Amino acid sequence: MTWFAKTLRALAPNCREAIRLQSEALDRPLTWRQRFGLWLHLGLCLWCRRYGQQIKFLRAAAQRCDQDEAVDQTLPAAARERIKHALKDGK
Amino acid sequence: MENENPAERSGTQPAPALSDPEQWVDLHGDYLYRYALMRLRDPAKAEDAVQETFLAALKGGRSFRGRSAEKSWLVGILKNKIFDYYRKISRETTFTDLDFYQDEESDRFVADGLGQGGWIHECGPAEWPANPGASLDNEIFWKTFHECAGKLPKNVRAVFCLREMDGVDSREICARLGLTDSNLWVMLHRARMALRRCLETNWFGKM
Residue A50: which of B125, B145, B185 has the nearest Cβ? Predict the structure, then answer.
């Protein structure tokens, strides 16, 4: 193993760790060391860069899924009546 | 702010309650039901949550000027009901959930040797279309998205909804569901991993 590979392994996370760190970065600030290691890794690894973009897309999609008016579900009639009764009794 | 309306300042009549509780169901029922259904993914539970919300609102007995104020007040109550439900399920870790945690996509990473912990070549994340956002206008994408999310263990889906759909702060989620930070991070990481993989297989891979 070359000195380059050795140094890299000491400083940068492997893919498995890199995807975990990218996920955590969406929920908390990483330490400087973690950020540096991740930056180093992502500079060399197309897969993990993709992974990071894709989980960011998941977040964007999740935020939109509430506004999805295509989900045209209404409170079923039976439940509607039941709740109205419950409200009358509860008064 | 509300009292600055001159008509109301001069008027002697009490603030008009905008709607009678019995009308709530017709005015806000559908919206609340959709809101609950999106987060609970269970029609019966969503109906219950809506009913509990209205009953709690009745007890709270406040009146609002303006429908939107009334609606956001009701949504606030519903959010708490949903949190209660999430707290309940976050205590139940079932056997399949343990499998879910152990999996960790181990089959996709090199197990030992020089490249340990690296993606196995054929298993690395595939390239998605240049503009994946276009999928967000597609009904079938949403169907796939919800089906994939539906495969997550309930407690994992709950934290995913709170964090990613509603943007609730990590600390608040931990405090209200009784989780540790690292607990939450692991759950979110697994959720993203599984959802990403599921969408890749069932949506982006088929485009």
Answer: B125
State the pLDDT at residue B114.
Answer: 74
Q: What would the CATH number be for the domain defined by B2-90?
A: 1.10.1740
Taking the C-alpha atoms of residue B30 and residue B34, their distance in angstroms, rounded to an integer, is 6
Within B63-182, strands assigned E span none
Nearest CB neighbour to B21, from listed A59, A79, A87: A87
| Chain A residues with CB-CB distance to B37 below 8 A | 73
> Which are the contacts of B83, defined by CB distance < 8 A and separation ≥ 6?
B176, B177
Residue ranges in chain B whose pLDDT is less than 70:
1-19, 61-67, 93-99, 101-106
- What are the residue boundaries of the structural domains of chain B, listed by start? 2-90, 95-206
Radius of gyration of chain A (CA): 24
Q: Which CATH class is domain B95-206?
A: mainly alpha
- Looking at residue B88, what is its pLDDT? 87
Which residues, 6+ apart, have CB-to-CB distance to A23 below 8 Å? A55, B185, B188, B189, B192, B193
Tens digits of residue pLDDT in A21-66: 999 999 999 999 999 999 999 999 999 999 999 999 999 999 887 7
pTM of the model: 0.82
- Annotated domain spans of chain A: 3-66
Rounded Cα distance, B72 and B67, in Å: 9
Q: Is A76 exposed, middle or buried (0-12, 13-18, 19+ CB in 10 A)?
A: middle
What ipTM did this prediction achieve?
A: 0.86
Contact: B136, A64; criterion CB under 8 Å = yes
pLDDT at B159: 93
Per the CB < 8 A criterion, the answer to whether B159 and B188 are in contact is: yes
> Which of chain B's residues have a Cβ under 8 Å away from the Cβ of A90?
55, 58-59
